[in-house]
From TrEMBL:
Biological processes per GO annotation: translation
Region (Disordered): 1-20
GO cellular component terms attached to this protein's record: large ribosomal subunit
Name recorded for this polypeptide: Large ribosomal subunit protein bL32
GO molecular function term, any single one: structural constituent of ribosome
Organism (species): Candidatus Chlorohelix allophototropha
Domain of life: Bacteria
Record-stated family: Belongs to the bacterial ribosomal protein bL32 family.
Amino acid sequence: MGALPKYKRSHSKQGRKRAHHHLDELQLVTCDNCGEQRLPHTVCKACGFYKGEQVIQTRQKTKV
């Protein structure tokens, strides 16, 4: 049997507990190499560059 609350949590305490349950807006930066939007401190998914160096190979889109 698990632990159960002894008393009902009041509305104000319930609200204070949930005060941090919100979503933050994404902070995006522009890639210096290709100009795409990306998350800071991450490799660009479009071109594979990070801090001016190519870190990963990306697939090139081919026209049919």
